[in-house]
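User: Structure with pyridoxal-5'-phosphate, tokens only please.
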Amino acid sequence: MNAVLQPPSTRTTAEWQAADTAHYLHPFTDFKALASKGSRVITRADNIYLWDSEGAKILDAMSGLWCVNVGYGQQALIDAATAQLKQLPFYNSFFQTATPPAIELAELLAEITPPQFNHVFFSGSGSEGNDTVVRMVRRYWDVLGQPERSVIISRKNAYHGSTVAGASLGGMSYMHAQGGLPIPGIVHMEQPFWFVHGHGKTRDEFGLEAARWLEAKILEVGPDKVAAFIGEPVQGAGGVIVPPATYWPEIQRICDKYGILLVSDEVICGFGRTGQWWGCETMGFRPDLMTFAKGVTSGYIPLGGVMVGDRIARVMIDQGGEFEHGYTYSGHPVACAVALANIRLIQREGLVDKVRTDTGPYLAEHFKALSEHPLIGEAQSVGLMGALQIVKDKSAGTCFDPSLEVGMICRGHCFANGLIMRAVGDRMIIAPPLIITRAQIDDMVALIRLCLDATLHDLQQRGLA
Ligand SMILES: *Cc1c(COP(=O)(O)O)cnc(C)c1O
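Assistant:
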């Protein structure tokens, strides 16, 4: 311990960066490359805005990391955490105990989820939630006397977290390339990405075709070996890929036909992001399990979990015996107290309805206008998540050489102009806080347009566009 450590706010940006480089290994980061330029240090936030250590104000069009659904600085969440820290900062739910916030949150989640969900298993994050999914899906078939049903089908370019099981369920080839993933018993099929795979077909035709790749995969693996299918209602980290309307109902039909469990990873889509409480409601399907995290506490404190549908809960409760699985922080009382305050705030402010009937359609209208920009080949949004596909040739729909990293060039202009937008390859994506107003959407879209213009100018100067 350094006894003369300065209070954090008195350090300069350069001092922060030096200490950061010396000691802090960041997630999903090329450590050496970051050390050569230094981190941007974020020091405070309010509403939909962040401030960095240089005092620059930034519009956070990514809600932190898809999680700050109610925006920054909400007193109700701060008060809930403070009160619970004083009352009971921690107790576990092992050994036949429980705490009031965990019980009340379980009850409230049962109320706001689709009717088949009456039970929850808590974790500390989305990745852990998906570890629980793998354990529970396999245990379910074990208890039913069909242990050979252990294969889980997922999709390429899916994101289901970064633990060994989460990264295995995910379909990111660059993650699989490190550490010998995926683990056995997880297979991947192609994603429903119309812009890339749907040429010459209508979105609806392509949606049916892409869903039927599931049936082909089931027949390839063997129907008696498949335990479950998992998917994000709308792929998030993969680039906000909104599937055609025909996709999910057909996936549901195929799962029903073979008796396969259907898992919806709602870590991004849950808690109002798509204009309904749950992405499966927007996309029209009825899952047996739902993973959640991020928006459950609006990111103020870590929490995740799995909603367990009656089909599985009845088997696990009535016939399962002890489920040999759990986390120290399953049902953490402070996290659950913050989640309760967060959900009640979303309810009180009518944020889900606001996204569905007001700000979501308003954003969609503006995104449509952005698709006229010379660099944009496709603009898609659902609720308050959206993507702009950068293209080289608009009429032919061809993309830039990936090695040019045009998305990163655009992200650099966003950074320089006080806007946080994320680049996934050459897809620029947003997911702003659900409290964003129409006037703030106008500001955000004006900033996006400015950054696209700057990117185009930059590419023209380099002779690339
Ligand atoms: C972020 C994310 C996860 C992983 O959640 P963590 O809290 O980062 O472990 C899982 N699934 C989806 C769809 C996500 O977006």
